[in-house]
Amino acid sequence: MSINRIKAPIEHEMDEFESKFRQSMKSAVPLLDTITHYIVKRKGKQMRPMVVFLTAGMCGGITESTYRAASLIELLHTATLVHDDVVDDSNERRGFFSINALWKNKIAVLVGDYLLSRGLLLSVQHQEYELLRITSEAVREMSEGELMQIEKARRLDIKEEVYFDIIRQKTASLIASCCAAGACSAGVDKEQLEQMRLLGETIGIAFQIKDDLFDYELTNKTGKPSGADIKERKMTLPLINALQTASAADKKRIINIVKNNNNDPKKVADVIDFVLHSGGMQYANAKMNEYRTKALDMLVDIPESEYKKSFIELIRFTTERES
User: Fold this and answer.
1) Among 154, 171, 310, 312, which lies 20 to 30 A Cα-Cα from 207?
2) CATH fold of the domain at 11-210
């Protein structure tokens, strides 16, 4: 299933959104304009705006408010990515140089702040206070989830329950806000708004587990698993499950590698091998499919439409994608 096919019912709206989104970032400061133009140029699959438009379409119809909802989500999301690259000292994103790599950290932080402010102003100027609440909740949860993950990474004592708390806040909250914002823009009641938020959260959890699985799968570049999460001392579901069923000696050895030898390629390969032979991958894969099924079941009562058809394909895409 290609992204273009999923996008088909909202192709016109997505084209119009691109123009409105570019407009929402405009500034009288030439440097800012140069940087925001660069941000627009290196855009990814635009999954989040797609979720907003498809949800609005399913819930009653796309309105002017839907364009603002998608712009607000994308502005806040882009701001968090710019700040993340500074925090992670990352020089690349989606195959392009990061903002901090080209313009240094101080400018990158200020650009992130500017994008956040544009999002806030966009909602306030149009009195979209419910959209503002939805997206502000997501930013709060994302920050809390990230901080919780950093705190737990120091001690490496993450249990499965804590892992799900972290990914619900860190990743799933943004997808949840996309669904909630799209539904809100279509004028749904509070009950349906919450149903759509939970749908997005469920999809977001499945999406993150799929990301975790990539760490242990062969990459096209090297023909080997990347082990990137291990190098960053992130305790993901395949590893957490593998440790739960390990002997005390294996558990101690693996945790020691993640804690103290996470930059040693041979040791990282040892952890990957341990997870692959423990059933951790199969367990995580089954959990991901469980969340995907749950998300699909949540759509049963939604009236049939081209939007719903594409949304179902989007859910499948999140768990079957190859990157």
Assistant:
1) 154
2) Farnesyl Diphosphate Synthase (1.10.600)
Indicate the Cα dihedral angle 45, 46, 47, 53, nearest 10°: -140
Give the domain ranges of the chain. Answer: 11-210, 215-293
C-alpha to C-alpha distance for 47 and 63, rounded to whole angstroms: 19
Q: Are 83 and 93 in contact (CB under 8 A)?
A: no
Q: Which residues, at least 6 apart from 13, have a Cβ–Cβ distance to it below 8 Å?
A: 53, 62, 66, 67
Separation between Cα atoms, residue 72 and residue 80, nearest integer Å = 12
End-to-end Cα separation, the chain, in angstroms: 14
In this prediction the pTM is 0.89
As a dihedral over the C-alpha atoms of residue 54, residue 55, residue 61, residue 64, rounded to 10 degrees, the angle is -80
- Residue ranges of the alpha helices (H) in 126-227? 129-155, 160-167, 173-185, 190-214
What would the pLDDT profile of 157-200 be if each residue is shown by its tens digit? 678 898 999 999 999 999 999 999 999 999 999 999 999 999 99
